[in-house]
Amino acid sequence: MKTKILILLIAFTFLSCKTNNSETDGKAKMTFEKAKWIEIKGGDYPYRDEMLSDLMESGILKTLHKQEVLELLGEPNRTDENFLFYTVSQQRLAFWPLHTKTLVIKFSGENTVEWVKIHE
C-alpha cells in the first residue's frame, strides 16, 4: 500500500512539473480564427493556446464592447459580474485538472473592455 502511494506521489510530481519557457513549448503560433477558437475536441480547445499570442498582441480585444467580444470569441466558459473567462488549455491527471490557462476579460461599467489578462 505504501509503495502504491509513493508511486502515485512520484508520478503526480513528474506530471505537474513543466517549464514555462516558450522556446521549449514546441507550439506553433497561429493567427486568430473564430471557427478554430470555438472548436472543441474531447472537452479541450485544441487551437486556443496557439492563437492566444496573436489575439493578445493584436490588441483587438481592448477596443471592443462586451457584445462584440461575445460575437468574436463565442460564449465564455464562465462569467462573473463584469468578467468573462475563456479556458485556453488544461492539463489533467485523469479527470483532475493540474494546470489551467484562462483568458480573463474585465469590462467597465459601460461594457467596454477594461483589461485582458491570462491566468495560469
UniProtKB/TrEMBL annotation:
Lineage: superkingdom: Bacteria
Protein known as: Outer membrane protein assembly factor BamE
